[in-house]
Specification:
- This protein has 380 residues and is α/β, with parallel strands linked by helices.
- It folds into two domains: 223 residues, Response regulator (Rossmann fold, 3-Layer(aba) Sandwich); 129 residues, Rossmann fold.
- Helix content is 45%, strand content 19%.
- The chain has 13 helices and 14 strands.
- Strands 7-6-8-9-10-13-14 form a seven-stranded mixed beta sheet, with helices on both faces. It has a five-stranded parallel beta sheet with strand order 2-1-3-4-5, with helices on both faces.
- Strand 4, helix 5 and strand 5 form a beta-alpha-beta unit.
- It starts with a helix and ends with a strand.
- Bound molecules: phenylalanine (PHE).
- The site of phenylalanine has 16 residues, from helix 12.
Protein backbone atom coordinates (compact mmCIF):
# COMPACT_ATOMS: atom_id res chain seq x y z
CA UNK A 1 0.00 0.00 0.00
CA UNK A 2 2.73 2.39 0.96
CA UNK A 3 4.33 1.96 -2.42
CA UNK A 4 1.11 2.76 -4.25
CA UNK A 5 0.55 5.92 -2.25
CA UNK A 6 4.05 7.19 -2.67
CA UNK A 7 3.83 6.58 -6.41
CA UNK A 8 0.59 8.57 -6.46
CA UNK A 9 2.21 11.36 -4.53
CA UNK A 10 5.02 11.34 -7.08
CA UNK A 11 2.56 11.56 -9.94
CA UNK A 12 0.75 14.47 -8.28
CA UNK A 13 4.02 16.34 -7.81
CA UNK A 14 4.98 15.69 -11.42
CA UNK A 15 1.60 17.00 -12.59
CA UNK A 16 2.03 20.08 -10.42
CA UNK A 17 5.47 20.70 -11.87
CA UNK A 18 4.03 20.46 -15.38
CA UNK A 19 1.31 22.95 -14.51
CA UNK A 20 3.80 25.38 -12.99
CA UNK A 21 5.93 25.09 -16.10
CA UNK A 22 2.94 26.35 -18.06
CA UNK A 23 2.30 23.15 -19.98
CA UNK A 24 -0.63 21.56 -18.20
CA UNK A 25 -1.71 18.04 -19.05
CA UNK A 26 -4.45 19.31 -21.37
CA UNK A 27 -1.96 20.91 -23.74
CA UNK A 28 0.68 18.20 -23.66
CA UNK A 29 0.56 16.59 -27.10
CA UNK A 30 3.38 14.16 -26.38
CA UNK A 31 1.34 11.93 -24.12
CA UNK A 32 -1.64 9.64 -24.57
CA UNK A 33 -3.70 9.75 -21.41
CA UNK A 34 -5.39 6.57 -20.24
CA UNK A 35 -7.71 6.54 -17.24
CA UNK A 36 -8.09 3.69 -14.77
CA UNK A 37 -10.62 3.35 -11.95
CA UNK A 38 -10.22 0.59 -9.41
CA UNK A 39 -11.00 -0.53 -5.87
CA UNK A 40 -7.52 0.12 -4.47
CA UNK A 41 -8.87 0.34 -0.94
CA UNK A 42 -11.98 -0.88 0.88
CA UNK A 43 -13.87 -4.13 0.85
CA UNK A 44 -12.55 -5.55 -2.45
CA UNK A 45 -9.11 -3.93 -2.25
CA UNK A 46 -7.22 -6.97 -3.52
CA UNK A 47 -9.26 -6.88 -6.77
CA UNK A 48 -8.23 -3.30 -7.52
CA UNK A 49 -4.63 -3.72 -6.38
CA UNK A 50 -4.07 -6.81 -8.52
CA UNK A 51 -5.65 -5.37 -11.63
CA UNK A 52 -3.77 -2.10 -11.09
CA UNK A 53 -0.47 -3.98 -10.82
CA UNK A 54 -1.10 -5.73 -14.13
CA UNK A 55 -2.21 -2.47 -15.74
CA UNK A 56 0.84 -0.57 -14.56
CA UNK A 57 3.23 -3.29 -15.69
CA UNK A 58 1.75 -3.19 -19.21
CA UNK A 59 1.92 0.61 -19.42
CA UNK A 60 5.55 0.62 -18.31
CA UNK A 61 6.51 -2.14 -20.76
CA UNK A 62 4.91 -0.19 -23.61
CA UNK A 63 6.67 3.02 -22.61
CA UNK A 64 10.00 1.23 -22.25
CA UNK A 65 9.52 0.02 -25.83
CA UNK A 66 9.02 3.58 -27.10
CA UNK A 67 5.35 4.25 -26.28
CA UNK A 68 2.68 4.45 -28.97
CA UNK A 69 2.56 6.59 -32.14
CA UNK A 70 5.70 8.30 -30.88
CA UNK A 71 4.00 9.35 -27.65
CA UNK A 72 4.33 8.32 -24.03
CA UNK A 73 1.42 6.64 -22.29
CA UNK A 74 0.28 8.33 -19.11
CA UNK A 75 -1.84 6.23 -16.77
CA UNK A 76 -4.11 8.23 -14.47
CA UNK A 77 -5.53 6.06 -11.68
CA UNK A 78 -8.51 6.79 -9.44
CA UNK A 79 -9.50 4.80 -6.36
CA UNK A 80 -13.25 4.26 -5.85
CA UNK A 81 -12.62 2.73 -2.41
CA UNK A 82 -14.89 -0.24 -3.31
CA UNK A 83 -17.81 2.12 -2.63
CA UNK A 84 -21.08 2.35 -4.53
CA UNK A 85 -21.50 5.80 -6.07
CA UNK A 86 -17.78 6.59 -6.30
CA UNK A 87 -17.09 5.09 -9.73
CA UNK A 88 -19.30 7.59 -11.55
CA UNK A 89 -17.62 10.47 -9.75
CA UNK A 90 -14.06 9.39 -10.46
CA UNK A 91 -14.72 8.39 -14.07
CA UNK A 92 -16.36 11.75 -14.68
CA UNK A 93 -13.20 13.35 -13.36
CA UNK A 94 -10.95 11.23 -15.58
CA UNK A 95 -12.91 12.28 -18.64
CA UNK A 96 -13.77 15.91 -17.88
CA UNK A 97 -10.73 17.01 -15.90
CA UNK A 98 -7.97 14.82 -17.29
CA UNK A 99 -9.16 14.33 -20.85
CA UNK A 100 -8.33 10.62 -21.06
CA UNK A 101 -8.87 8.94 -24.45
CA UNK A 102 -9.91 5.59 -22.94
CA UNK A 103 -10.91 4.22 -19.54
CA UNK A 104 -9.84 0.90 -17.99
CA UNK A 105 -11.99 -0.69 -15.26
CA UNK A 106 -13.61 -2.07 -13.21
CA UNK A 107 -13.23 -5.55 -11.81
CA UNK A 108 -16.60 -5.71 -10.01
CA UNK A 109 -19.65 -5.73 -12.28
CA UNK A 110 -21.76 -3.35 -10.19
CA UNK A 111 -19.06 -0.69 -10.37
CA UNK A 112 -18.54 -1.21 -14.12
CA UNK A 113 -22.30 -0.89 -14.60
CA UNK A 114 -22.18 2.39 -12.69
CA UNK A 115 -19.42 4.00 -14.74
CA UNK A 116 -20.22 2.56 -18.17
CA UNK A 117 -23.02 5.10 -18.94
CA UNK A 118 -20.60 7.95 -18.18
CA UNK A 119 -18.11 6.59 -20.75
CA UNK A 120 -20.86 5.80 -23.25
CA UNK A 121 -22.37 9.30 -23.03
CA UNK A 122 -18.96 10.94 -23.38
CA UNK A 123 -18.05 8.55 -26.25
CA UNK A 124 -14.88 7.42 -24.50
CA UNK A 125 -14.11 3.70 -24.91
CA UNK A 126 -14.14 1.74 -21.67
CA UNK A 127 -12.55 -1.69 -21.28
CA UNK A 128 -13.47 -3.74 -18.24
CA UNK A 129 -10.71 -6.23 -17.50
CA UNK A 130 -12.87 -8.66 -15.57
CA UNK A 131 -16.52 -7.70 -15.04
CA UNK A 132 -18.51 -10.74 -16.11
CA UNK A 133 -22.15 -9.61 -15.82
CA UNK A 134 -23.58 -9.60 -19.36
CA UNK A 135 -25.29 -6.21 -18.89
CA UNK A 136 -22.00 -4.31 -18.60
CA UNK A 137 -21.30 -4.16 -22.35
CA UNK A 138 -25.00 -3.84 -23.18
CA UNK A 139 -24.68 -0.24 -21.95
CA UNK A 140 -23.54 0.71 -25.43
CA UNK A 141 -21.09 0.44 -28.29
CA UNK A 142 -18.21 2.14 -26.43
CA UNK A 143 -18.11 -0.51 -23.69
CA UNK A 144 -15.81 -3.56 -24.03
CA UNK A 145 -14.41 -6.31 -21.88
CA UNK A 146 -11.53 -8.77 -22.22
CA UNK A 147 -13.08 -11.61 -20.17
CA UNK A 148 -15.84 -14.18 -20.58
CA UNK A 149 -19.36 -13.51 -19.27
CA UNK A 150 -21.44 -15.20 -16.56
CA UNK A 151 -23.86 -17.17 -18.72
CA UNK A 152 -20.71 -19.15 -19.57
CA UNK A 153 -19.23 -19.16 -16.06
CA UNK A 154 -22.57 -20.35 -14.60
CA UNK A 155 -22.61 -23.21 -17.10
CA UNK A 156 -19.04 -24.18 -16.24
CA UNK A 157 -19.81 -24.48 -12.53
CA UNK A 158 -23.14 -26.24 -13.04
CA UNK A 159 -21.40 -28.84 -15.19
CA UNK A 160 -18.67 -29.10 -12.55
CA UNK A 161 -21.34 -29.77 -9.89
CA UNK A 162 -22.72 -32.58 -12.00
CA UNK A 163 -19.54 -34.18 -13.34
CA UNK A 164 -16.95 -33.64 -10.61
CA UNK A 165 -18.81 -32.96 -7.36
CA UNK A 166 -21.54 -35.36 -8.52
CA UNK A 167 -24.22 -33.50 -6.58
CA UNK A 168 -27.92 -33.17 -7.32
CA UNK A 169 -29.51 -31.08 -4.58
CA UNK A 170 -27.63 -27.77 -4.49
CA UNK A 171 -28.45 -24.68 -2.39
CA UNK A 172 -27.67 -21.22 -3.80
CA UNK A 173 -26.58 -18.37 -1.53
CA UNK A 174 -26.61 -15.01 -3.33
CA UNK A 175 -25.28 -11.53 -2.50
CA UNK A 176 -28.25 -9.34 -3.45
CA UNK A 177 -26.11 -6.21 -3.33
CA UNK A 178 -24.00 -7.43 -6.25
CA UNK A 179 -25.11 -7.61 -9.90
CA UNK A 180 -22.36 -10.14 -10.44
CA UNK A 181 -23.70 -12.45 -7.74
CA UNK A 182 -27.33 -12.19 -8.84
CA UNK A 183 -26.46 -12.87 -12.47
CA UNK A 184 -24.13 -15.78 -11.77
CA UNK A 185 -26.68 -17.36 -9.40
CA UNK A 186 -29.34 -17.17 -12.11
CA UNK A 187 -27.16 -18.64 -14.88
CA UNK A 188 -25.87 -21.40 -12.60
CA UNK A 189 -29.42 -22.33 -11.63
CA UNK A 190 -30.66 -22.48 -15.23
CA UNK A 191 -27.93 -24.88 -16.25
CA UNK A 192 -28.08 -26.96 -13.09
CA UNK A 193 -31.82 -27.53 -13.61
CA UNK A 194 -31.25 -28.25 -17.30
CA UNK A 195 -28.64 -30.82 -16.21
CA UNK A 196 -31.36 -32.56 -14.19
CA UNK A 197 -30.22 -31.13 -10.85
CA UNK A 198 -32.34 -29.71 -8.07
CA UNK A 199 -32.14 -26.35 -6.28
CA UNK A 200 -33.49 -27.14 -2.83
CA UNK A 201 -32.83 -23.73 -1.28
CA UNK A 202 -32.18 -20.17 -2.41
CA UNK A 203 -31.14 -17.64 0.20
CA UNK A 204 -29.79 -14.07 0.08
CA UNK A 205 -27.20 -12.06 1.95
CA UNK A 206 -25.94 -8.50 1.71
CA UNK A 207 -22.27 -8.14 0.79
CA UNK A 208 -20.47 -6.77 3.85
CA UNK A 209 -22.62 -8.70 6.33
CA UNK A 210 -20.65 -10.63 8.94
CA UNK A 211 -23.26 -12.97 10.37
CA UNK A 212 -24.66 -15.51 7.93
CA UNK A 213 -25.81 -18.06 10.50
CA UNK A 214 -29.57 -17.59 10.13
CA UNK A 215 -29.50 -18.31 6.39
CA UNK A 216 -26.93 -21.10 6.74
CA UNK A 217 -29.09 -22.79 9.37
CA UNK A 218 -32.07 -22.63 7.02
CA UNK A 219 -29.93 -23.95 4.16
CA UNK A 220 -28.70 -26.84 6.31
CA UNK A 221 -32.29 -27.81 7.06
CA UNK A 222 -32.85 -28.54 3.35
CA UNK A 223 -30.00 -31.10 3.44
CA UNK A 224 -28.13 -29.88 0.37
CA UNK A 225 -25.29 -31.90 -1.10
CA UNK A 226 -23.39 -28.71 -1.92
CA UNK A 227 -23.82 -24.91 -1.69
CA UNK A 228 -23.10 -22.58 -4.62
CA UNK A 229 -21.92 -19.17 -3.33
CA UNK A 230 -21.38 -16.63 -6.12
CA UNK A 231 -19.85 -14.00 -3.83
CA UNK A 232 -16.69 -12.00 -3.20
CA UNK A 233 -13.83 -13.36 -1.13
CA UNK A 234 -14.41 -11.67 2.26
CA UNK A 235 -18.05 -12.71 2.50
CA UNK A 236 -17.27 -16.15 1.07
CA UNK A 237 -14.52 -16.81 3.64
CA UNK A 238 -16.86 -15.92 6.51
CA UNK A 239 -19.64 -18.02 4.99
CA UNK A 240 -17.32 -21.05 4.77
CA UNK A 241 -16.23 -20.57 8.40
CA UNK A 242 -19.77 -20.26 9.71
CA UNK A 243 -21.04 -23.19 7.60
CA UNK A 244 -18.38 -25.34 9.21
CA UNK A 245 -19.27 -24.10 12.69
CA UNK A 246 -22.89 -25.05 12.05
CA UNK A 247 -21.92 -28.53 10.87
CA UNK A 248 -22.89 -27.86 7.28
CA UNK A 249 -20.10 -30.07 6.03
CA UNK A 250 -20.78 -30.18 2.29
CA UNK A 251 -18.73 -28.66 -0.54
CA UNK A 252 -19.13 -24.91 -1.01
CA UNK A 253 -18.16 -23.66 -4.45
CA UNK A 254 -18.31 -20.46 -6.48
CA UNK A 255 -16.89 -18.26 -9.24
CA UNK A 256 -14.11 -15.78 -9.90
CA UNK A 257 -15.17 -13.52 -7.01
CA UNK A 258 -13.50 -16.01 -4.66
CA UNK A 259 -10.06 -15.26 -6.04
CA UNK A 260 -7.95 -13.44 -3.49
CA UNK A 261 -5.17 -14.43 -1.10
CA UNK A 262 -7.49 -13.04 1.56
CA UNK A 263 -9.90 -15.93 0.96
CA UNK A 264 -7.33 -18.27 2.51
CA UNK A 265 -6.01 -15.77 5.05
CA UNK A 266 -9.51 -15.33 6.49
CA UNK A 267 -11.07 -18.72 5.72
CA UNK A 268 -8.09 -20.98 6.52
CA UNK A 269 -9.16 -24.61 6.98
CA UNK A 270 -12.80 -23.73 6.27
CA UNK A 271 -11.96 -22.98 2.61
CA UNK A 272 -9.53 -25.88 2.22
CA UNK A 273 -10.69 -28.34 -0.46
CA UNK A 274 -13.27 -25.95 -1.95
CA UNK A 275 -13.47 -25.07 -5.68
CA UNK A 276 -14.10 -22.01 -7.82
CA UNK A 277 -13.88 -20.99 -11.45
CA UNK A 278 -11.80 -18.10 -12.75
CA UNK A 279 -10.04 -16.72 -15.83
CA UNK A 280 -6.42 -17.66 -15.51
CA UNK A 281 -3.78 -19.51 -13.54
CA UNK A 282 -0.03 -18.89 -13.87
CA UNK A 283 0.55 -22.64 -14.29
CA UNK A 284 -1.32 -22.60 -17.59
CA UNK A 285 1.76 -21.85 -19.59
CA UNK A 286 1.47 -20.31 -23.01
CA UNK A 287 4.70 -18.48 -23.99
CA UNK A 288 2.82 -15.18 -23.54
CA UNK A 289 1.72 -16.16 -20.07
CA UNK A 290 5.20 -17.31 -19.02
CA UNK A 291 6.72 -14.01 -20.13
CA UNK A 292 4.11 -12.13 -18.15
CA UNK A 293 4.54 -14.25 -15.02
CA UNK A 294 8.33 -13.68 -15.07
CA UNK A 295 7.99 -9.92 -15.50
CA UNK A 296 5.27 -9.71 -12.86
CA UNK A 297 7.24 -11.73 -10.30
CA UNK A 298 10.35 -9.66 -10.90
CA UNK A 299 8.46 -6.45 -10.30
CA UNK A 300 6.01 -7.32 -7.53
CA UNK A 301 7.68 -10.31 -5.90
CA UNK A 302 4.43 -12.29 -6.09
CA UNK A 303 2.65 -14.52 -8.57
CA UNK A 304 -0.06 -12.81 -10.63
CA UNK A 305 -3.71 -13.75 -10.23
CA UNK A 306 -6.50 -13.52 -12.81
CA UNK A 307 -7.18 -9.85 -12.18
CA UNK A 308 -3.52 -8.93 -12.66
CA UNK A 309 -3.41 -10.85 -15.94
CA UNK A 310 -6.67 -9.33 -17.18
CA UNK A 311 -5.56 -5.82 -16.17
CA UNK A 312 -2.43 -6.37 -18.25
CA UNK A 313 -4.47 -7.69 -21.18
CA UNK A 314 -6.86 -4.71 -21.07
CA UNK A 315 -3.93 -2.34 -21.66
CA UNK A 316 -2.35 -4.48 -24.37
CA UNK A 317 -5.54 -4.81 -26.41
CA UNK A 318 -6.06 -1.05 -26.12
CA UNK A 319 -2.49 -0.46 -27.30
CA UNK A 320 -3.05 -2.80 -30.23
CA UNK A 321 -6.20 -0.85 -31.15
CA UNK A 322 -4.42 2.51 -30.94
CA UNK A 323 -1.68 1.16 -33.20
CA UNK A 324 -4.15 -0.18 -35.76
CA UNK A 325 -6.21 3.02 -35.62
CA UNK A 326 -2.98 4.95 -36.01
CA UNK A 327 -4.63 7.62 -33.88
CA UNK A 328 -5.32 8.25 -30.22
CA UNK A 329 -8.83 9.55 -30.85
CA UNK A 330 -11.64 7.91 -28.87
CA UNK A 331 -13.96 7.19 -31.84
CA UNK A 332 -11.17 5.64 -33.89
CA UNK A 333 -9.94 3.62 -30.91
CA UNK A 334 -13.50 2.33 -30.43
CA UNK A 335 -13.74 1.15 -34.02
CA UNK A 336 -10.35 -0.56 -33.83
CA UNK A 337 -11.25 -2.23 -30.52
CA UNK A 338 -14.48 -3.56 -32.00
CA UNK A 339 -12.43 -5.09 -34.80
CA UNK A 340 -9.97 -6.89 -32.45
CA UNK A 341 -9.40 -10.39 -33.77
CA UNK A 342 -7.34 -13.28 -32.43
CA UNK A 343 -5.36 -10.98 -30.17
CA UNK A 344 -2.76 -13.08 -28.38
CA UNK A 345 -3.33 -12.14 -24.73
CA UNK A 346 -1.90 -13.55 -21.48
CA UNK A 347 -5.32 -14.98 -20.57
CA UNK A 348 -5.92 -16.48 -24.03
CA UNK A 349 -6.93 -15.42 -27.53
CA UNK A 350 -9.29 -12.46 -27.62
CA UNK A 351 -11.72 -11.81 -30.45
CA UNK A 352 -14.33 -9.14 -29.72
CA UNK A 353 -17.74 -10.55 -30.56
CA UNK A 354 -20.73 -8.48 -31.74
CA UNK A 355 -21.54 -7.61 -28.09
CA UNK A 356 -17.94 -6.48 -27.42
CA UNK A 357 -17.38 -9.45 -25.12
CA UNK A 358 -14.52 -11.96 -25.34
CA UNK A 359 -15.29 -15.63 -25.70
CA UNK A 360 -12.60 -17.41 -23.67
CA UNK A 361 -11.93 -20.51 -21.60
CA UNK A 362 -12.40 -20.69 -17.84
CA UNK A 363 -10.18 -22.52 -15.37
CA UNK A 364 -11.30 -24.36 -12.24
CA UNK A 365 -9.11 -24.07 -9.16
CA UNK A 366 -9.06 -25.97 -5.89
CA UNK A 367 -7.94 -24.58 -2.55
CA UNK A 368 -5.19 -26.95 -1.46
CA UNK A 369 -2.60 -26.38 1.25
CA UNK A 370 -3.66 -22.74 1.43
CA UNK A 371 -2.89 -22.25 -2.29
CA UNK A 372 -5.00 -22.23 -5.43
CA UNK A 373 -4.24 -25.36 -7.40
CA UNK A 374 -5.05 -25.53 -11.11
CA UNK A 375 -7.47 -28.34 -11.88
CA UNK A 376 -8.81 -27.99 -15.40
CA UNK A 377 -9.56 -25.67 -18.31
CA UNK A 378 -13.08 -25.49 -19.74
CA UNK A 379 -13.39 -24.13 -23.27
CA UNK A 380 -16.52 -22.27 -24.33
N1 LIG B 1 -16.25 -11.16 -12.35
C1 LIG B 1 -16.40 -10.42 -11.12
C2 LIG B 1 -17.51 -9.39 -11.30
O1 LIG B 1 -18.00 -9.23 -12.37
C3 LIG B 1 -15.15 -9.75 -10.71
C4 LIG B 1 -13.90 -10.59 -10.62
C5 LIG B 1 -13.16 -10.90 -11.75
C6 LIG B 1 -13.46 -11.07 -9.42
C7 LIG B 1 -12.01 -11.70 -11.69
C8 LIG B 1 -12.33 -11.84 -9.34
C9 LIG B 1 -11.60 -12.19 -10.48
O2 LIG B 1 -17.92 -8.71 -10.41
Amino acid sequence: MKLIFSRWAGATLAALALLLAGCGPATDTNVIKIGEYASLTGKEATFGQSSHNGTELAIDELNAAGGLLGKTLQLITEDNQSKAGESQTVVNKLIARDGVVAVLGEVASSRSLEAAPVCQNAKIPMISPSSTNPDVTKTGDYIFRVCFIDPFQGTVMADFAKKTLKVQNVAIFTDVKSDYSKGLAKFFKERHLANGGKVGAEFDFNGGDTDFKAQLTAIKATQPEAVFVPGYYTDVALICIQAKQLGLNVPLFGGDGWESDKLVEIGRDAVEGQHFSTHYHPDVGTPKSRQFVDAYKKRYNAAPDAMAALGYDSVMILADAIRRANAAEPAKIRDALAASKSFDAVTGMITMDANRDASKAAVILKVEGGKFKYLETVAP
